[in-house]
Structure formats: C-alpha cells, structure tokens
Amino acid sequence: MDQRTCLVTGASRGIGRGIAEHLASEGANVVVNFRASEKEAADAVEEIRSNGGSAIKAQADVTGRREVEAMRDLIHDEFGEIDVLVNNAGITQDTRFEEMTREEWDQVMDVNLGGVFNVTQTFFEDIKSADEGRLINISSIVGKQGNFGQANYATAKSGLFGFTRTIALELARSGSTANCLAPGFTQTDMLDEVDDEIQEKIRSEIPLDRFAQIDDIAAAVRFLASEESSYITGEVIDVNGGMDL
Ligand code: NAP
Fold this sequence. Notes:
Layout: E1 5-8, H1 14-25, E2 29-34, H2 38-50, E3 54-59, H3 65-78, E4 84-87, H4 102-122, H5 124-129, E5 134-138, H6 141-145, H7 151-171, E6 177-183, H8 189-192, H9 196-204, H10 214-225, E7 236-239
Parallel strand pairs: 1-2, 1-4, 2-3, 4-5, 5-6, 6-7
NADP nicotinamide-adenine-dinucleotide phosphate binds at residues 9-16, 33-37, 61-63, 88-91, 111, 115, 138, 140, 183, 185-186, 188-191.
Family: Belongs to the short-chain dehydrogenases/reductases (SDR) family.
Organism: Natronoarchaeum mannanilyticum
InterPro entries: KR_dom, NAD(P)-bd_dom_sf, Sc_DH/Rdtase_CS, SDR, SDR_fam
C-alpha cells in the first residue's frame, strides 16, 4: 500500500478506526474522517504516527456535500488524489417499525445512504483515475437478514448491495473495483447500545460463538484494498462468524 492514499469515513472510533490503523500499517497515507469526535480522531492519528504510519484527520459530516467537498480539497493539498475510499460512517436509530418516526427513518437514510452518495460522488474521479482504485462499502449482516427494530438500518444497508454492484459496473473499464463488506455483530460502541439481554441472545446464535473483533473486519478490508483483490468486484463479502449458515 506504499504511496496509496486511503480515506476512511467515520474513523474516529470503532470499525473505521481499526480499518484506518490496518491500512496505515501497510504503508498507506490514511485520512481519518470524523463528524464530531475530534479528540478521538486526533488520538487515532497520533497512534498511527507513533507506529511509524502516515495519517491526517479530516472533519466532515458525510451528509453535507459542501463539507465533503472541503474535505476533498484538504486531502488533495496534503496527499493528492485518493486511491481507496472506505465508506464506513454509519448510525442506527432503533425502534419497532410501528413506532418509528419519519425523522428516525430519514436520519438513518441520510447518513448511511446519503453520506455514501456524497462521498462516493465527490471522490469518484479520484477512484476512477487511480491505478486500481478501490471503493469499499461497509454494509451489515442486517442488510441481508433484517433485524427486529432496525427497519431503517436494514433498508439502508441492503441498499448498499445494489449500489456497490452498479458502481462496480460503472468503474470496471477503468480497472478500479467496488465491493461491499457485510460484518456480523462487532464489539464497538454501536453494539454497546444494544440491551445486554439482546446481545446475549444474538451471541448465542453465532456459530463461532463470539462477536467479531474490530480486527476481524479491518483485516478483510485490508485485503479488499490491496492489489491481491484485483479480480474481485461487485461482491458482498460476509465476515460474520457463520451467522448466515
Ligand atoms: P461506531 O462505533 O458508532 O462509530 C461510528 C463512526 O461513524 C464514528 O467515527 C462517527 O464519528 C462516524 N459518523 C457517524 N455519523 C457520521 C457522519 N454523519 N459523518 C461522518 N462520520 C460519522 O460504529 P461502528 O460499530 O464502528 O460501525 C462502523 C460501520 O460498520 C457502520 O457503517 C456500521 O453500520 C457498520 N457495522 C457495524 C456493526 C457492529 O456490530 N458494530 C456490524 C455491521 C456493520 P463521530 O463520533 O464524530 O460522529
């Protein structure tokens, strides 16, 4: 990954931070995007640099096109065009569908799909003109299976499957690829928000009998970002401990 520049959205903590650290450990210049958690983003950059890696932080709410465009200018000034985009930023607003407000529906669509639209379109030319550019969208097992109380999130995450396949076709002639990763339940702040009792029920249904660690997900992204994945495009890669077996 030497000389490659990778943008990871929502990289101040959780899975995004793990992805940023893994890509930096391969020699890439990494951009740690965040919305509000500036201190955590600064910590992530500091940790990468202290391990000999190259990273900067870049604030932008992915729902704001102008903020995303300003972030592109900052990245271009610092590192030049990007080669790899990881659309990782995502939120949940869980409640039973009967009680779900239109606002809860819209907020999840706005970040999890609208954000992907904004960031991907803003950096599309970079990825297309890169030598083997990579677009990696972080979906979820919930996009495949659905999940009680997550009608908004499941809809947004399954939307990424169609998006990824289409962009894979539109990028193909340039030699760049687009793939989706569908993690299972992963030990992060997002999972901590789920009631302990429900967490235990989910865990008991995982054949490998444990939640994913951030490194399990980040390692798969590292592979998709590498030249070793050159002939894989338009795919959904499951990393879920066997949950859909
Ligand atoms: P997390 O710990 O809640 O972290 C979310 C990250 O996204 C934070 O860095 C947050 O930054 C950022 N973010 C949120 N809204 C944003 C916005 N509008 N613009 C820019 N950044 C924004 O989440 P996670 O568990 O690591 O999840 C990361 C991704 O994996 C998500 O797409 C999630 O849907 C997916 N996923 C998670 C699991 C799981 O079990 N954890 C399973 C499958 C898939 P701020 O703090 O600054 O807002």
